[in-house]
C-alpha cells in the first residue's frame, strides 16, 4: 500500500499556513467572541449571548458547504453572486483550489479554501449578534442566520472577493473590512431597529458580569487576527508577514489612542474602552493590512482609535442612536471602523503592497491614483445599501410568522427562562438562585418546581437571607 503525500501543485507550506490561519480565525469565534460576549453582558444573559455565537458557528458551516461557498466563490450566476451548489464531493475537495470567476488559483486543496472562507462567514454573523443580545427570540435567530448568510453575506463576498463586479472594478478589501465588518455593523444596526430595545432596566444598567473573562475573549480575538489578515494572500508569503505586523501595529496604536481619550475626557483609563479601541483597530486595518506601509498602519490606528470613540461617545447619545438599541455598539466598532479602513485604503495603498498581494492596482491617492478613493466609496455604499434592504426584508418576513423578541418573562429572567440554565452556580452545588435581580421565583411543592414570578419590593430587597442552597425573602 502506498500513499501520495503531495501533488505537483501542492505547496505544503502554503497549505499548513492556510489551515493554521483558518484555525486562528475559528478561535476568534469559538471561544473568543463566545467568552467576550459572556463576560461583557449582564449575568442573566451570559449563556444566551454565548450560545447565540456557538449556534451561528455551527449553522453557518452546514449552509456554507451545501450552497453558501459556491454562491460566494463559484461560477458567476449574476454580477454579484455565484451559482448555489454543494461543495461536498471528496474528489472536488481534494482538487486544487480555484476561484473560477476571479481567475485565481491557490497551491492548496479546495477543502482548505472552503474551511478558511467558512470561518470568515461565521464570524460575520457572530459579530452581528452583538447588536441583538438581551432580547432576540432564539428561534428567530436560528432562522435568521442561514437566511442572512444566503441573501446578504454571499453577495458581498462574491462581489468583492469571488470575482464579482466590485472585484472587477478594482475595489480593495484585503481581508473583510467591507465584506465582514461594514456588513455586520450595518445589518446589526438595522436588525436592532427591527427588534426594538432591551428592557429599560437592562439598558440603564448593563454592566459586564466578568471583565476578566471579557479580556480573555478580547485577547483571543486580537491574536487570532494574525490568521484573519495573515491568511488572505492565500500563501505563506512575504505579504502575509507584512499584513500581520501592520495588523498588530494599528491595533496597538488604536487601543492607546482610545485609552488616552478616555483619560482626557472621563479622567480614568477604562478597560472596556481599551477593548473597544482594540477592536476598532483590528477592524480598520483589515481592508488594508497587506497593501499599506507601516507608517500607514500607525495613521490608521490613530483614526480608528479616535473617530469611533467620538461616534460611540457623542453620536451614540443622540436621539436616533438612543432609539436603536445596538447592545454592544457593533455599529461604532465595526461599521464606522470598517468604513474608515476602507476609505483610508483608497488613500494609503501602495503599488508595492498591491503587487505583493497579487493584484494589479496602481495603489491609492498617495501613489497619484485618486480614483481609488472613489472606488472604495462605491464599494462601501453597495455593502451598506444591500444590507439595509436585505436585513429589513428578512426581519420583516420573520416577524410575520414568529415573534422577533423574547416574551416578557424571558426578558425579565434571562438565561434561566430561555435555556433553563444559569452561568454561575453560586448557590450550593449547582442549585439555581431563585432571585433574579429584583424578581423572585418560589417553589410550589416539595419537588422544587418553580412557580409564579413576583416582584420583590424595595423593603424586601434589603432583607434577603440564604436558606440552605436557595435564596428566599424573609417574611415576618
Automatic annotation (TrEMBL):
The keyword Flavoprotein does not apply. The chain crosses the membrane at residues 16-38, 50-69, 114-133, 138-158, 178-196, 208-225, 245-266, 278-303, 373-398. It is a multi-pass membrane protein. Signal peptide: none annotated. One of its GO terms (cellular component) is plasma membrane. Keywords: Ammonia transport, Membrane, Transmembrane, Transmembrane helix, Transport. It is found in: Cell membrane; Membrane. The keyword Transcription regulation does not apply. GO terms for molecular function: ammonium channel activity. Residues 16-424 form the Ammonium transporter AmtB-like domain. Its main location: membrane. NCBIfam families: amt. Belongs to the ammonia transporter channel (TC 1.A.11.2) family. This is Ammonium transporter.
